[in-house]
From TrEMBL, chain A:
InterPro entries the UniProt entry points to: AAA+_ATPase (IPR003593), ABC_transporter-like_ATP-bd (IPR003439), ABC_transporter-like_CS (IPR017871), P-loop_NTPase (IPR027417)
Organism expressing this protein natively: Meinhardsimonia xiamenensis
Residues in ABC transporter domain copies: 2-238
Keyword tags: ATP-binding, Nucleotide-binding, Transport
Protein name according to UniProt: Phospholipid/cholesterol/gamma-HCH transport system ATP-binding protein
Top-level taxon: Bacteria
Example GO molecular function: ATP binding
UniProtKB/TrEMBL annotation, chain B:
UniProt-recorded name of the protein: Phospholipid/cholesterol/gamma-HCH transport system permease protein
GO cellular component: ATP-binding cassette (ABC) transporter complex
Signal sequence region: none
Pfam families cross-referenced by the UniProt entry: MlaE
Membrane association type: Multi-pass membrane protein
Broad class of the protein's primary localization: membrane
Stretches that traverse the bilayer: 12-32, 52-76, 152-182, 202-225, 237-256
Entries under PANTHER family matching the protein: ABC TRANSPORTER PERMEASE PROTEIN-RELATED, PROTEIN TRIGALACTOSYLDIACYLGLYCEROL 1, CHLOROPLASTIC
């Protein structure tokens, strides 16, 4: 279980997170929606300790996540798909995917790591022939899917997906949505997904949280998304220009 | 108002002094952190070997050519200078000591600063900007251990080897010019060089080179890791890495020369 209590984060004068409170239960799929630039990516980075909040507490199973006693063990529980992919350009695709399996605590023989990498690539719709290419040789959507394969490669118990379907065609987006849903349902993983794609929200989410103006404006089950009674959520879900959210940000 | 304007240059001076002190502090902190990671596992031998290739092996042509031309030019200049007091015969000795104690390590350091500090800063800066450093951390890999330590170690080990090669090629360049253009006797040239050079000359040059290698890689990594956002940030990091490592090399060169002066 992940718990955020009154989390604040600023960059210079810009106050991005202004007291975020959120609880993600073990084994659930939480989707975070919100306008561009509202701090969704920053929120995930705070949980992983990549960005240090100025104020507030973040707990993982009741333990302090901002200063974990064993950071390696803490991070080993997570997988993360970065918004821009963040693939290592100096390594071929399969070594990117198998990064964790090639070194450190989870190290295995190279052939086995490669086999697992190719298997994960297949799950995101990439053939074995991509394994030996370098990230720069891939299209944007392919890079995103390699990032996805890397995030799930070591079968972590908590996975963060930052915009997993942006840049993908609708068919592949459907594949990825089902993959994420499958990981949560079959492997019992906890997933936190950021997306702007309402089809993805409905396909992936157990619960949905709406971030706006530095705070979580609404949290509720996905079934209530269309009748949340929350003006922010209503405007966002229907993509209306009029409402409490300014179009010009 | 007028007083404020008069004080402006002073305020500027104060601000840049503080900025410089802060930068020195950050570099010192980075240095300490690098050293603390060198001896603690996990180690990444693959990265280390790859960097040894990139920093050492691929710098050979640049270092070799620079040394060859410098050794040749040095022989001509010393001949010109020596002729003024009938001391043309010192060419082999001065070329040897000039290359081994000073020019070999310094030129190797500067050439590698241009070639390697820039590429390290650009590579790590790009990794920073494209969140690859963040990705490393989430994959339970410490960027200091995975990126900085292999590069710093490889450069510290590769530079003395490069400098030794540079020394030899530089002396050879002087020899070529000496026997072809200056009509010096080939056998005497080699004998004078060999008899004259002492172990301390060679060692002091190689120690310098090791320190320069350390500086180059450390500055490349430091500026890369602290790169600003976007392509502009990476560009600035690259420039800063080359400039700061070159200046530090010259500064360290003086201090080390002073240190080895007695020997
Ligand atoms: N390292 C940083 N330095 C300075 N400002 C930052 C940094 N990271 C994020 N920001 C700022 O924080 C704000 C939130 O950024 P974030 O990337 O979290 O947005 P987001 O909600 O993920 O948007 P999008 O949906 O477009 O990805 C932005 O205004 C951004 O400029
Ligand atoms: Mg984002």
């Amino acid at each position: 279980m992940i718990e955020l209590i009154d989390v604040h984060k600023s960059f210079g004068k810009k106050h991005v997170l202004k007291g975020v409170n959120l609880r993600v239960e073990k084994g659930e799929s939480m989707v975070i929606i919100g306008g561009s630039g509202t701090g969704k990516s920053v929120l995930l980075k705070c949980i992983l300790g990549l960005v240090r909040p100025e104020k507030g507490r973040i707990l993982l199973d009741g333990q302090d996540a901002i200063r974990p006693s064993d950071r390696d063990a803490f991070l080993a529980r997570f997988g993360m798909l970065f918004q821009g992919g963040a693939l290592f350009d100096s390594l071929p695709v399969w070594q990117n995917v198998a990064f964790r399996l090639l070194r450190g605590a989870l190290k295995r023989p190279r052939e086995e790591a490669r086999r697992i990498a190719i298997d994960k690539l297949a799950r995101v719709g990439l053939g074995a022939d991509t394994a030996d290419l370098y990230p720069a040789e891939l299209s944007g959507g392919m890079q995103k899917r390699v990032g996805l394969a890397r995030a799930i490669a070591a079968e972590p118990e908590i996975i963060f997906f930052d915009e997993p379907t942006t840049g993908l065609d609708p068919i592949l987006a459907g594949v990825i949505n089902r993959l994420i849903r499958g990981i949560v349902e079959e492997m019992g993983a906890t997933a936190v997904t950021i997306t702007h794609d309402m089809t993805s929200v409905r396909a992936i989410a157990d619960r949905v949280a709406m971030l706006h103006d530095g705070v979580i404006q609404w949290v509720g089950p996905v079934s209530q998304l269309d009748n949340s009674g929350n003006p922010y959520v209503d405007q966002f879900v229907h993509g209306r220009e009029e409402g409490p959210i300014e179009a010009l940000r | 108002m007028k007083g404020a304007r008069l004080l402006d240059p002073l305020a500027g001076l104060g601000a840049s002094t503080l900025g410089l002190l802060a930068a020195i502090g950050r570099v010192a902190f980075y240095l300490a952190s690098t050293l603390s990671h060198v001896l603690r596992p996990p180690f990444y031998p693959r990265e280390f070997l790859a960097q040894l290739m990139v920093i050492g092996y691929f710098s050979l042509p640049v270092v070799g050519l620079t040394a060859l031309f410098t050794g040749g030019a040095l022989a001509l200049q010393i001949y010109v200078g020596g002729a003024r007091f009938n001391a043309e015969s010192v060419v082999p000795q001065i070329v040897a000591i000039g290359m081994v104690r000073e020019l070999g390590p310094v030129l190797t350091g500067l050439m590698v600063a241009g070639r390697v500090a820039s590429s390290i800063a650009a590579e790590i800066g790009t990794m920073k900007v494209t969140e690859q450093i963040d990705a490393l951390v989430t994959l339970s890999t410490n960027p200091m251990k995975y990126l900085t330590v292999p590069r710093v170690l490889a450069a510290t080990i590769a530079l003395p080897v490069l400098a030794a090669v540079g020394d030899a090629i530089g002396i050879f360049g002087g020899y070529l010019v000496g026997i072809t253009r200056l009509d010096l006797n080939a056998a005497t040239y080699l004998k004078n060089t060999a008899d004259f050079l002492e172990t301390a000359d060679v060692i002091s040059g190689l120690v310098k080179a090791a320190v320069f290698g350390f500086i180059v890689a450390l500055m490349g990594c430091y500026h890369g890791m602290n790169s600003g956002r976007g392509a502009q940030g990476v560009g600035r990091a690259t420039t800063n890495a080359v400039v700061s490592s070159s200046v530090l090399i010259m500064g360290a060169n003086y201090l080390l020369t002073q240190l080895f002066f007695a020997t």
